[in-house]
Amino acid sequence: MQKKILEFTNILRKSGIRVSPAESIDAFAALDDLSVEDREIFQDALRATMVKRGEEVPTFDELFDLFWSGFYDNLRDSFAQATGELGEMGVDFETLVQQIVEMLNGMEGDFGDLSELARALLTSDLSQLENLIRQAAEGAGADRIENFLQVGFFSRRTLEGMGLEDAREELGGLADALEQAGMSPEQIAALRKLIEGLMEAARRSVRAFTERELQQQNHDYMEKFRRETLLEKSFYHLSEEEIRKMREVVERLAQRIKNILSIKKRRLKRGKLDLRQTLRRNMSRGGIPFELIFKRRKKDRPKLVILTDVSSSVANVSRFMLQFVYSLQEAFTKIRAFVFVSELGEVTPIFQEKDISEAIEDALEGGTVINVYTRSNFGHAFHHFWQNYLSAIDNKTTVLILGDARNNYNDPRAWCLREIHHKAKNVVWLNPENPSAWGFGDSVMDKYLPYTDVAEECRNLRQLSKLVDSLLL
Amino acid sequence: MFENVAHVLEELGKQDYICDKKIGTVVFLAQQLEKPVLVEGPAGVGKTELAKVVAAATGRRLIRLQCYEGLDEAKALYEWEYSKQLLYTQILKERFSQAMSGAKTLREAAERVAQEDSVFFSDHFIVPRPLLEAITSPDPVLLLIDEVDKADPEFEAFLLEVLSDFQVTVPELGTIEATQRPLVFLTSNNAREMSDALKRRCLHLFIDYPTEADERRILELKVPGAAEGLVSDVVGMMQRLRDLDLKKLPSISETLDWARALLALNARELDEDLVNQTFNVILKYEGDVRKAQGELDKLLQKQAIREGAPVPAPGAPQKPASASKKGALH
C-alpha cells in the first residue's frame, strides 16, 4: 500500500501538483487514522493532505480515478468475463477449481508447485494479479511510455516479463495431467476453455494497464502543451475555440501580475515618521511617543490611456489587450480606453459598468460608439483625439497604442502623435506586424516611430504579457 | 472527540449543518493529526459556519481572529498595555523613590530600577489578542482565522510559528507553548494565493456550491416554513443561475435569504413577477440582474418542462450564451 501511495505521489508531481515530502508523510499519518475501506474517505484524505490549490483539485480527482480504480475494475471485468463463459457451459468456476485442487492433492503433484502467475490466474486472485502486472510493467519500463504507438510494444514487453506464455504451458500441462488422472472430458474441456479465457483476460488487462499508464503520463503533458502553444501562437491564427480558451490564460497571467504588484506595493509601505499621527495616537499616554506611526509612501500607479485599433485586421490582438487591461484595472489609477478605425470613440464607461466579456465585445464592435465598417485611418483618429481628448494626458500618463499602422494611404498626420508624445510620460506602440514590414506598403509605422518611446512587435500572448509586465513593474 | 468520519457527520448534523463526507473526513483528520485546516471556496458557502459548528459540536470555545489588510502582531497576538503601565508608575512613584533612596550613585539607582523591570513586563500588563488567547487557554478551544487572504503576506509568515508548533514567542517573556492544542480553521476567499509554506502546514478543504440535493436539505432545515413547491423551485433556479456567466454567483447564504424573503411574501411557488421583484436578494450586481432577467424565460420555462418531462441535460443553459457570443464575433 505504501509503495502504491508513493507511486501515486510521483504521478501527481509529474502532473504539476507539488507534493512535498512532509505532505506525503501527512497522507500516511491520515491513513493510519482512517479505514481505507471507504473509497470516498480514502480519496478525501489524500486530497486534503496532498492538494493545496483549488484549481488542482480536478486534476487530482481525475488522476485518482485513473490510478486507483480504473485498473482493478478493469481486471475484475475481464476475469469475470472469462469465468462467466464457463458458466455458460454449465460448469461452476468455484467447484471446478475446488476439484482441481483436490485432484492435485491426490496426485504426487501439489498446487503449490505451480508458478505464482499460474496460481493467481487459476484462482482469479485479482490483487495478486495486479501486483504481478505492476511489477512486470515496471520491469518493462512502461512508465516511460510517450505516445499511443508504443502501447503495443510495452504491453508485449510486460507480458513477456510476466511470463504469461510459461504460465499457459504450465496450465496446459496441468490439464493434461488431470485428464490422465481421470477427470471427466466435459470438465477437461471446460478447463481448457477457462485457460484460454484467462489468457485472453490477462492480455487485455495488460493492454489496459499500459494505456492507463499512457494517460497518466500524458495528462500533464497535454495540458502544458496546450497552454504553451496558446501563449506562442500568433493572434492571427487563432480559432474561435482557442480564443475562448485563451481567456483563462489571460486571466492567469493577469492574476500573476497582480500578485507581484501587491507584494511590491507592500514593500514600499513604510515612509517617513508621521509626527501628527504619532502625537495623536499617543495622546492617551500623556504624549509620550510609545508607538510610532509612519507615513505610507505611495508608489505612483500609472495612468493609462489606451488607443485600440479595432479594425478586423487586428481585432484579435485588440481583444486580448483589452482583456488584459480590463483584468488589471485596479492596478492603474485611471484607465481611459478609446477605440478607433477611422472615427475615434471612448469606451471607458463600458469598461467600468459591464462585465468583462460584454465590455470587450461592445468595445470591439464599437457599434454604439463608432462606425467600425470603414477603412482604417490612423491620422484621422489621432487628429480627433488631439482635438477632443488631449486633456486626458498629463505627465504621468502612459499612452498605449495598438494597431498595425496600415493607413490605407491616408495622411498619417504624425504631428498629432508628436503633440501627444510631448505631453505624455511615454508612448508605447504595439504592432502585431513584424518590424521588417513596418513602413512598407501602406504602413506608416515609420512616420510614427520617432514619436514613440517603445514600439514593439506584439504577435502573441507571451509578448503581450511581457509588455504589460514592463509597463507596470 | 470524534470517533470516526460518520460520527463527525452525525455531530455536525445535530448542529444543523449539512455537509458531505469530504468535509467530515477533513474535520476528522484535523482532530487526529492536530493540524490546521485551510478552508477555501466561494463566498457564502459556509466556511466560517463550519468552524462555528465544529466548535459547538466539540464543546470548544470559539476564538475568532478576523483578518484585514494592515493586521499586525499587536492586534493578533498581544499588546503591552502602555497606559496601565504608565498609570502604575505614577501611582507607585512613592515606592520607587523609597527603593531608590538608598542609592548613592546614579548607576546604582539605574540598576535597582532594572531589577524591578520584570514587574512591568509581566502577564499583568499584557493584553492577550486572539492568537495568544488560543495558545494560553487552559481549556480546549477552536481558533478561527477568518479571511486570512485579506491579511498581508508578512502576517502569514508570522502565522507559521503558531500553526506548526502551536507556540508563540514574546521577546520579554520567552516562548509560550500551548497547554491544549487548539483546533485551527483558516478560511480564505482566494483574494490572493497563500504561500506554499502555509499551505504545507495545513490540511486543505475546498468547499464548493452545494449539489441540488444538499441544497434542498439545507433549505428544508433552515427555512422550515417553506412549501415544498417553493423549495424545489428555488433550488432549481439557484442551480441554473450558477450555470450563467455572472460576476458574483449566488451562494447558499443567498438561497436562504431568498427563501426567507419569499416566505415573508407568502409565496407558494415562483412566477415571473415574483422573481423579478426579488432578484436583488440573490444577485448583487446590476449587470447580473439584467443578464438573469434576459434568461428568465429559460430559467422558468425549463422549470415547467422539468415538472412534466425528464430533466434537461446539465450544461444546456450554457449553449444559448455561447451561441450569442459567436454571433457577436462576426
Overall description:
- The complex is a heterodimer of chains A (473) and B (330).
- Chain A is an alpha/beta fold.
- Chain A has 2 domains: 2-17 and 53-229, no CATH class; 300-472, von Willebrand factor, type A domain (Rossmann fold), CATH 3.40.50.
- Chain A has helices spanning 2-14, 21-33, 39-50, 57-88, 93-106, 116-122, 126-140, 151-162, 164-180, 185-232, 240-267, 275-281, 315-327, 348-353, 356-365, 378-388, 414-423, 445-448, 461-472; strands spanning 270-273, 294-296, 303-309, 334-340, 344-346, 397-402, 426-431, 454-457.
- In chain A, the strands form 2 sheets. Chain A has a 6-stranded mixed β-sheet with strand order 5-4-3-6-7-8. In chain A, strands 1-2 form a two-stranded antiparallel ribbon.
- Chain A is elongated and about 110 Å long.
- With 330 residues, chain B is of the alpha/beta class.
- Chain B folds into 3 domains: 5-74 and 129-206, Rossmann fold; 78-125, no CATH class; 212-308.
- Chain B is built from 18 helices and 9 strands.
- In chain B, helix 1 crosses helix 2 (21-33).
- The termini of chain B are far apart.
- Chains A and B meet through helix 2, helix 3, helix 11 and helix 15 of A and helix 2, strand 1, helix 5, helix 11 and strand 9 of B.
Defining key terms:
heterodimer; A: 473 residues; Rossmann fold; six-stranded mixed β-sheet; two-stranded antiparallel sheet; B: 330 residues; alpha/beta; 3 domains
